[in-house]
Structure formats: structure tokens, C-alpha cells
């Protein structure tokens, strides 16, 4: 679903999706497309290819399946403003993928916060934690924490990410789903970003 959402404005074939999404083989992708078409998430075009028909519903499914509040997070206190923290993290681990309000700030500033959330591949989590502590950052809990690392083994989250102002942002479907399932102002931000993205004004 994430790969389809990254290609939301395109018509794609089953073979293309199978090769580029790198999740399912051709047969499984074909079956998935049949199910998604029957559910109204995608549609078959006149050319015999497929296109996302209901991006909002697809993102809602991701939010339900992977609610942000259920994701494991390592929390730290770095201090400073959001961009300063993002630069510090980038200098220590360039393969981070920012999400929630840190990513949203780069696309459509709306919510004022200094908290930063970023995904990091599981193998790099331990080494990044060591680097942060060596740099004077401390582990923190509760309201004291201002930086949150989300370990993941999903390499597609990074492969399908996009660059913005020198930072890596998670795929749009994941970002909007994270904001939606975060609730409150996150839901408002999700609507803003989704509207810009589907209208083609958000890059």
C-alpha cells in the first residue's frame, strides 16, 4: 500500500508494482490488486493498468494497522529547537527518516512543537544511542523527553522516503497515517498535508 500511495498520481501495472514494491511476488501482487479493487481502494483504468481510487481510505487502513501510539520508541532529551535537534540527529545517523511533526514542519508548518520523531533501522539503533550519549544527550522519559527514535526493520520505509531541505522524510502514506493515528493536532495536520499532496502542491 505504501508503494501505491507513493505513486498515487500514476497508473501502474501489476508487474511494475511487484518489481518496485519488493513486498510480494507477481501472483501475490495480482491477488492483492484484485482485493484492493473489489474494496474500492484502487481502480482498473482504460489502459488495463491500475490507479489509487481512494488514498484517504488506504491511509486510514495503515493508521489502523500500525497506530503510532503502539510503536516502540527510545526517548531522549537533546534540547534546542526542532531543526537544531534534526540537524544533530542527521549528523550522527544520515539514514534517519523523520515523521510526525518534524516531517510535517518541512512540508506544511502548522503545529508548534520542539519534539522530534524519527525512524531508524534496527541495526543502527544501538550505535546511534551510543553516539547520542557520547555527544552529551541523555535518555529521558515522560514530558522531559523531546526526541524519539522509532526502531524499524522495514527497509522500504527508507527506500521510498523523500528528501526535503537536507532531511529524509518517511513516505507520504506513513507520515499521514502517523499524524492521523497520533490524534488531536496531528489529525488536523494530516488533513492539511493530505489535501496538498493529493492536489499535487506538496512535493
Question: In summary, what is this structure?
Answer:
The protein has helices at 2-6, 14-21, 26-38, 55-65, 82-92, 100-107, 122-134, 156-159, 172-182, 185-198, and strands spanning 42-44, 50-52, 74-77, 97-99, 116-121, 138-139, 147-152, 162-164, 167-169. With 203 residues, it is of the alpha+beta class.
Spatial separation of the terminal alpha carbons: 19 Å
Percent of sequence in beta strands: 15-25%
Order of helices and strands: HHHEEHEHEHEHEEHEEHH
Which class of secondary structure composition applies to the elements? alpha+beta
CATH topology of the largest domain: Beta Polymerase, domain 2
How would you describe the shape?
A: elongated
Number of helices: 10
Number of domains: 2
Assigned CATH architecture of the largest domain: 2-Layer Sandwich
Percentage of residues assigned to helices: 40-55%
Arrangement of strands in the largest sheet: 4-5-7-3-6
Could you report the average pLDDT, rounded to the nearest whole number?
Answer: 91
Which spans of ≥5 residues are poorly predicted at pLDDT below 50?
A: none
CATH level 1 class label of the largest domain: Alpha Beta
Radius of gyration: 18 Å
What is the number of strand segments? 9
* Largest sheet: number of strands, sense, barrel closure: 5 strands, mixed
Amino acid at each position: 500500500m505504501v508503494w501505491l500511495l507513493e505513486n498515487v498520481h500514476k497508473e501502474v501495472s501489476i508487474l511494475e508494482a511487484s518489481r518496485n514494491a519488493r513486498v510480494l511476488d507477481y501472483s501475490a501482487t495480482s491477488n492483492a490488486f484484485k482485493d484492493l479493487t473489489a474494496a474500492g481502494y484502487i481502480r482498473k483504468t482504460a489502459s488495463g493498468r491500475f490507479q489509487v481510487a481512494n488514498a484517504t481510505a488506504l491511509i486510514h487502513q495503515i493508521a489502523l494497522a500500525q497506530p503510532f501510539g503502539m510503536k516502540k520508541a527510545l526517548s531522549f532529551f537533546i534540547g534546542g529547537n526542532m531543526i537544531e535537534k534534526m540537524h544533530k540527529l542527521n549528523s550522527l545517523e544520515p539514514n534517519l527518516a523523520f515523521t510526525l511533526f518534524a516531517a510535517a514542519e518541512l512540508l506544511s508548518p502548522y503545529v508548534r512543537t520542539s519534539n522530534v520523531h524519527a525512524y531508524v533501522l534496527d541495526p543502527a539503533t544501538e550505535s546511534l544511542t551510543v553516539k547520542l550519549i557520547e555527544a552529551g544527550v541523555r535518555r529521558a522519559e515522560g514530558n522531559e523527553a523531546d526526541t524519539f527514535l522509532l526502531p524499524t526493520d522495514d527497509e522500504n520505509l527508507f527506500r521510498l522516503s523523500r528528501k526535503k531541505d537536507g532531511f529524509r522524510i518517511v513516505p507520504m502514506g506513513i507520515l499521514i497515517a502517523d499524524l492521523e493515528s497520533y490524534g488531536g493536532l496531528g489529525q488536523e495536520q494530516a488533513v492539511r498535508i493530505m489535501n496538498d499532496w493529493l492536489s499535487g502542491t506538496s512535493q
